[in-house]
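Supplementary notes for students who missed Thursday's class. We covered one full example, reproduced here. Read the sequence, then the structure, then the short commentary at the end.
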Amino acid sequence: DFSLRGRLLFMPTDNLTLDARIFYSTLDAGADYYIALPDGDLNNISAPLNPDEFGTGTRDIEEYALKINYDASAFEFTSATAYTSTNNAYSGDVDYSPVPFFRVTQDWDIESWSQEIRFTSPTEQRLRWVAGFSYFKRKTTLATTPELNFGFGYIPFPSVTTDRNNEIGVFGQINYDITSRIEFTLGARYDSDRRKQLNVLTGGRAKKTFDLWQPKGSLAFKVTDDAMVYATIARGFRSGGFNVPSTVFAPLYKQEESTNYEFGFKTSWLGNRLIVNGAAFYIDYTNQQFFFLRFDPVIMAPVQGITNIDSTEVTGLELEIQARLAPGFDVTAGVGLMDSKIKKFSEMPAFVGNKANLTYGWSYNMSAQYTKPLSDD
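Structure (token representation):
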């Protein structure tokens, strides 16, 4: 694994800043190190790895970004431009046995451009605002070739799809100090994502536009100079898309939408040497996207895909503490509790009542940091 980062920060005037960055990474690794469970016990890994060929995976990433910041006194102008290219190659024995029966190769190439323009007001005024727009363009080519061997050589069953999407977003937000202790926030964002898919081998085409207005409202009350409580409600959005052609996944998966409610507090004690923050939240998902594998009996291979869970709810609590125990010595600790429930799942009704994917119960974290200046300069 080799990576390289570079950055050039240029300030031609007091008001203008140019920030250019480059990143390159290459990875050469193994893949598909799976074994069959001899007795169905998930913790029994005594069986040896015994494929007829070990899997391989490679990945190359190139990223280039330029951020331009200009302070025009009445507002601040920001432009962020980025380009990313990712190339993945994979091969593996997916019967997980020494018998040369079933293997898969896959090449996945992604190329994307993004551009964001943002205007921001000065922070010291009573009415603060931000407005802008974004553009994102991506092309993805996925070539998957399962190969079956019936004793007279491998027979390929290739699949090649090209996905393109063009996303445009506009956004704005205002923050207004109703009084010296009450702040009101109102924002909105609109995203429109036009997606197209081409099945290179069959010539089949599909296209769909996903879009949503996403409002946000928040009210914050400063109880004292060192304590604040707030309440927020906001809409969220994740674009839909197309699955790789198969007999086990629907060609189209829907956009994911969420309504988020959060109530919390932020406090500072002992002259900012102790900070205690907490929050409670509730998220109501519609068509939550769920990524998993299914076995396709036509090609005799597992297929990756996304489906939608009709309705899911997630509730949680978070508490964070930051403490400066001595000059330069900081400790941070946090605890979280999350619960979730699948309320409706048309495609797999047997899972209704279960927890949603990628959610946990309790979580904990702790960190410590000591900083010592090397000089007074």
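Commentary. DSSP finds no helices and 18 strands in the chain. The chain has a mean pLDDT of 93. If anything here is unclear, bring it to office hours.
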